[in-house]
Amino acid sequence: MKDRITGSEALMRSLVNEGVDTVFGYPGGSIMPVFDAMYDYRDVFRSVLVRHEQGAVHAAQGYARSSGKVGLCIVTSGPGATNTLTGISDAMLDSTPVVVIAGQVASAVLGTDAFQEIDFVGITQPITKWSYQIRRAEDVAWAVARAFYIAGTGRPGPVVLDFTKDAQTALVDFETAKVDSVRSYIPYPTPSRSAIEEAAALINEAKRPFVLVGQGVELGEAHEELKAFIEKGDIPAARTLMGLSALPSDHPLCVGMLGMHGNYGPNYNTNECDLLIAVGMRFSDRVTGNVKTYAKQAKVIHIDIDHAEINKNVRVDVPIVGDCKEVLPMLTELIDTALHKEWIESFRKLNAIEDEKVTEKALNPGEGALLMGEVARKVSEATGNSAILVTDVGQNQMMSARYFKYTKPHSILTSGGLGTMGYGLPAAIGAKIAMPERDVCLFVGDGGLQMNIQEFGTIMEQGAAVKIILLNNNYLGNVRQWQELFFNHRYSWTPMLNPDYGLIAKGYNIASRLVTERAELDDAIREMLETPGAFLLHVAVKEEANVMPMTPPGATVSEMIFE
Amino acid sequence: MEKRLYTIIIYTENIAGMLNQVTAEFTRRMMNIDTITASSSSLDGVHRYTISLWGEEDSVHKVTKRIAKKVDVLKADYYTDNEIFFQEVALYKLSTPKVLADSEISRIIRHSTARVIEVNDNYTVVEMTGQTDVIVSLYNDFVARGCMLQFVKSGRVAVPRASQEKLSELLFDEDYKRHIKK
Which residues from A are below 8 Å from B181, CB to CB? Predict the structure, then answer.
């Protein structure tokens, strides 16, 4: 027999049906029936009351990216909904599966400027994979099933459900729904056999092949397939920022990180290789530098699940549209066992130049103020290089991404596409909740920490044992660096007067320690990791230090500067 | 790159908010849509948009791909004018007294492919189907005779020259179903 229940209860059962175990959210007028229904599900869902709706989405992103599951947030209409927009945009650009359910005014008053009414579907259509208004309790089961299916399949992304208040309270004969196909949507295109053969032929002819590894490898869980592919072909591989943990840092064929602040070897050799093989990456401008001078000498193979990425930024000779977990083994089968010893060695030689000019000084400065790089490397090593790195945005992001080491999949959470300051703290909370057995280390600057510092409250309430490493330089450091390099040292709006972060942490019952001297660093890191709960490691770092090396904006990818 | 007139034909599910999703891709690039026609297609529950605009092929290509990848879009393709048959429809409301007073006006109508669909004491409504240049030329003729009261022209409807509509086959194709079941 069917069960006659409210739309809100139907939502609860539909979420259970999708295997939801955690809800990040914030209640309000237009979503009260849903939160009321959730009161009976306290033992089913972990309820994470954030302190601002932006935090809810970033936390859901952190949950999703660290676990591979779909993250969920539930917020109210109007301001609750608009506060999620930054997180939704972030999830769209970084292909993160999240479902945002927002309350909406009753359908009878839609379009009347009712209290806390906003056209949420209209606003979110350009920044979601799918955005839908549920106006009838009958549609709840189907809409939720479709939302989770769309968010989590193919190239993942955010989905919005705008849930009118009358639909939340209306009664429905509930039946669960399952969505495993949408006729207008092909999440996993079948790769073209001929394209794979063509690509294999190019690889077998190439003298200097080079693999670019993106987040697609992580999203497709193709870590082993990637290794098998590059190992058989003996092809050096570099990762994008988003794909750093797709290939372990210490893999013999791993030649570093791409991008504006990536490593010299991979950036320089992008313009030396004769074949670029891009796997699940989208040739972001932060990777290509000046696209007009990017890898013009090379043939390009682009493997991506999203057809619209092909030829978007870089001209491609052989596109392979498909899931890299499926494509890579097909390619591996067709390529010859090869050796590219000299070519791989050329990356090492170039990286050695960077080591000498930049890395050595960043990791072992000997004297003077603490530097971000040495802190990041020490924290990484203290966790056995097995922690999840969460970054905020700016210098803290680039330095921690550069100097962390990655040994496990899903070990870097960062806002790569949107570059959202304030992402880090809530994302770290989400990651720790999803993966309680892993160390979660957040690197954040004094600017970004204050953009969502209210989430200290969520840490306190949830007992989320996030290790927060605050790299405090009393500046908006990345902007200051650009002002130094490109705006004639005019530090407009970048120096910051900071509060006493230890006092703030204390207010939220978060243990903390301030480190100003190099000699204290090891002990402070040990204390941080040994402390059972959350910890704020406040490191006073050199105020005017720059992230190097750097491909200046608009420059050719190979033209990195070192100071 | 050279700007040309392109026609983009899009098939979508017939649901509220689709037009907004489609046009948002143009807004994002500040590409100005010249004409747009939206209606149901020959397939049940499938809507069809025909959009014409001036643009460079590279950006038209990219915007078409991004529209095609939207979840509720079934298919999107772009064409140049020599790859499609296309027509527009125009209505001209003319002053009946002026039409009666000036025999040249009825001669113009007779020598065109236009037809008269309403005549009363005040006004005469003329309808013509054709391509933009012919429609505009007739408009100019009426304006020159001083008889024009109102004028309206539709966006274009178009069918590709190349082949028959493949969408219905696509939707029921076993291979396609296999993709989407995965």
Answer: 180-181
